[in-house]
Amino acid sequence: MSIRALPPVPGWKFSPHQDVIDQLRGQAATRLSTTATSGAQRDAAVHRVVTELLDEHARTSLAAGRMPLDPPVEAQVAAAIRDAFSGLGPLANLLADKKVTNIFLNGPAVWVTYLDGTKKRVPPLFSSKGELVDRIRDIAARAGTDERRFDRGVPRVSVRLPDGSRLFATLLSREPAVAIRRHTLLDVDLDILTRQHAVMHPTVTRLLHAMVRARKNVVICGGPATGKTTFLRACAKAIPPWERLVTIEDTDELALDLDPAHPDCVALQAREPNVEGEGGIDLAELVRWGLRMSPDRVILGEARGGEVVPMLNCMSQGTNGSMTTIHTSTSAQAFTKLMTYAAQSAERLPFEATAPLIGTAVHFVIHLAWSTDGVRVVSSVREVVDADHTQVISNEILRPGGDRRATPAAPLRPDTLDELAVAGFDPDLLAGW
Known about the structure:
The chain is an alpha/beta fold. The protein folds into three domains: 1-8 and 88-184, Beta-Lactamase (2-Layer Sandwich), CATH 3.30.450.370; 18-68, no CATH class; 190-431, P-loop containing nucleotide triphosphate hydrolases (Rossmann fold, 3-Layer(aba) Sandwich), CATH 3.40.50. It is 36% helix and 21% strand. Helix 1 packs across helix 2 (39-63) and helix 11 crosses helix 12 (351-361). The radius of gyration is 25 Å and the shape is elongated. The two termini are 32 Å apart. Residues 124-365 form the Bacterial type II secretion system protein E domain. GO terms for molecular function: kinase activity.
């Protein structure tokens, strides 16, 4: 990854006209505080108030014998003030850039990564710590129906932005820190990932289609930013539209309930406790709730804690075809992570109990990685065979090649191959690859 950097930014104030911006922004906030409009009406009110304030500032400057702001400067000041009262504020322009993949704010320092792998430091977006924190609170308040606090009592917040990106912010570092992960591929299927993004060989695409149609339980794993959520969304596209889905997430990222391809889908999202510390609902509880909604499949956005046990039970109790993701470095490591999370859950399952549960619940593990030429790819596929004491037995049917792309390895079990053939997969494709 190449890096283009700006020199260090001294302090938070970055505009030579920041004092004017701060002054007029405060006046605008006062005038808008009595405006109860929202949406387009509020945007119009903001535009009107900003125009009025700039006109008044120009008249005051002339009356005092000072030169008013030059037109280009006045336009920059107006944009900065308007941004303070829009939904995403100064973040809007970066989020509108389709080439941006991630945005990181370390206090006043702003870093952006792009699709081509480059990383660039851009000018600060906020003039003070308070302004940044207020913006995060405003974004969190607009993000959903439940309360999303962001203060010293609850010093972190995770929300889904309107474009599908995920924002996470914390107050536990020296300065407020924000990470925004872009989901640039929202409406994507396995064929698009193959043809347009070279994620996998066409044979792997057909194999995955058959896995979904054959209602195999799948765990998608990989390191950070390897495209697990996008890949899960693409796999879900292969689910027949008449099936009833329940998705369970900490922060709504999959948005399968908004996809016309899934007309019968219920999206459940975890809820933070309120100010009194009550009313919180975690992912483990949501998995149990989801099973009561008579789903054909349950899709857990990410397994990373106590929800592992109810999810594995879900997979082994009739909702075949369920899916989840998990962070791992290799496909084999998925089993260790699942058993570790089960041991840390409320049930405190030992490895001896979790291994056979995984052996009966999970059918396939798919590992995603970065190829040597910088492409997110399918790197490994494991078929779960059985369990022996504390070990999950699996065959790596596709293993990483020299460039980390999946290549043929061990054969599928005959029974599994027969089931995939019924679901439309041609077994001869594996031999002729």
